[in-house]
Amino acid sequence: MSKPIVISAALTAAALLTFAPARAQESPERVVVPYRSSGGPRIVHASLMNGGITVKRHDGQDVIVEASAHSGGRPAHSRDGMKRLDLNHGSGLDVEEDNNVIEIKTNAMEEESNLVITVPANTSLKLKCLNGGDILVDGVTGEIDANNLNGKVTLNHVSGNVIAHSLNGSVIVSLDRVDASKPMSFSTLNGDIDVTLPADFRANVKIKADNGDVFSDFEVKPGANPHPVTEPGDAKNGKYKIRFDNSMTGTINGGGPEFTFTTFNGEIRIRKRK
Amino acid sequence: MTCEQIRIGMAEYLAGRMSAGDRAAFLGHVDHCEACAAEVEEFTALWRDLDDLPLPMPSTRMLPRFRAMLHAYERSSRPSNLAMMPSRPWMWGALAASLFVGGLLAGHYLGRNSAANTEIASLKTEVEGMRQMVTLTLLQQQSAGERLRGVTWSNRMERPDSAVENALLTAVNRDPNVNVRLSAVDALQKFTANPAVRRALVDAIPVQDSPLVQIALIDAIVPLGDASAGSMLRQLAADPHANEAVRKRANWGLRKLGVA
């Protein structure tokens, strides 16, 4: 078993400080984690207190982590002709790798720092944000677990398996291909859920929307309880409107793994990929 | 464990006969070996499908054919007609052989149903045990997706047992993923005949940090009409730190229970 490598971004920051004392307002710290061919499948875990996470795909094998700390609202860079020496008010980026599992954290408590992570196409993700930022993922295939407290979760053109939650933001997911054997789950308290799925995907769905409507252009065949009323006449954008007490179960394309959609105050839209 | 040992241990793993230590080593390897993980996945699916496999029945033509053969044999071996009896030793041999085959067939087809029934029963128990094991194993995985699968596996069990019940309650209280907790609350609805589970669901509300899960718990408890949940809901409704939606839902629950 390979020994974990720890890359302290503080070193990077120190280097920046030495060679470029007059840093720009937003100075990204950058860490490149090479792929271990002997390791397991690639998994990236990232969690942030303040700020958002963006995950992009590239054709290379490395994982590139960039953190940018906003020196939010701090005064100008010079005073009485002196230049400010920026101490490490940076993101406190901390990247750790063990057997292709990459842990990314930032220690900055007060300042907002945004993470941009560039990964190979086949990468599993576990992302967590607390305040002031959105989670955005584009084009990744794998198991994606995204959890946000106050921001949005947006997953564009992803494939595989998704578990997504935001407490106060919306959950917007578009899946190109789904792992046919695994359940998925999308939930939010105050936001909307908007999920686009391949036309031929199969699932047993559980839908719960206490205070909002549910729309879908899939034919959802209702299960045993409770009895929803489908109103084709009341269609919005050519979609069926499904009315029910506050939850329903049903099947799409004959049934498959369990897909759960839960929102308390928002609306649910389940779209067919065109 | 090596990939070779995984292949050898596969049957034991699927049947749930592996010791805890071996299973840990097995899963430890599978977690890190994509090829073995794929193989385990494939065999698990196969094992699952075995349960749904219809029992093959003998063809309807088999019985008339067998009767015809028996009839022909009876006619040929009537003792009144001694001339029909085989006169050469090789014919005796042939007769013995056909008797033997006839007996085998009769035994096979006549005795089959009852044997098959006990076999099905024991297979069912085994499958049920396997589902329990799969549920419990999946609920302990690192990945939220696997744990979510574990929760949905528990829905396949016909008679969930206390081990699964406890694992699901632990998931409600401790799972780091909100969606897994939500599904676990949902899966526990079929255990609510057990007063201990009802109690545990009520107790889970104040320790829960996700408002969405708190609401799911209230929604699970209130329809049971158990007024003992009242004091907890009253506390929650009055708690200024609780999420506004949760307070509203608690008030709704109190009205539904008629204890507002």
Helical content of chain A stands at under 10%
Q: What order do the helices and strands of chain A follow? A: EHEEEEEEEEEEEEEEEEEEEEEEEE
Shape of chain A: globular
Task: Quote the average pLDDT of chain B.
Answer: 82
Strand content of chain B: under 5%
The CATH class of the domain at 192-260 in chain B, by name, is: Mainly Alpha
The number of E-state strands of chain B comes to: 0
Mean pLDDT across residues of chain A: 80
Q: Characterize the largest beta sheet of chain A: strand count, sense, and whether it forms a barrel.
A: 23 strands, mixed
CATH topology of the domain at 192-260 in chain B: Leucine-rich Repeat Variant
What is the annotated CATH architecture of the domain at 192-260 in chain B?
Alpha Horseshoe
> What oligomeric arrangement do these chains adopt?
heterodimer
What is the H-and-E element order of chain B?
Answer: HHHHHHHHHHHHH
Beta-strand fraction estimate of chain A: over 45%
Largest interface: A-B, 32 and 27 residues
Please, how many domains of chain A? 2
Figure out the total of helices of chain B. Answer: 13
Written overview of the protein:
The complex is a heterodimer of chains A (274) and B (260). Chain A has 274 residues and is mostly beta strands. Chain A contains one helix and 25 strands. By secondary structure, chain B is an all-alpha fold. Chain B has a domain at 192-260: Leucine-rich Repeat Variant, CATH 1.25.10. Chain B is built from 13 helices and no strands. In chain B, helix 9 (178-188) runs parallel beside helix 11 (211-221) and helix 12 (230-238) runs antiparallel to helix 13. The radius of gyration of chain B is 30 Å and the shape is elongated. The mean pLDDT of chain B is 82. Chain A binds chain B through residues 39-41, 99, 124, 126, 143, 145, 147, 161, 163-165, 167, 181-190, 206, 210, 257-258, 260, 262, 264-265, and chain B through 31-34, 41, 45, 143-145, 148-149, 152, 155, 177-180, 182-183, 186, 210-212, 215-216, 243, 245.
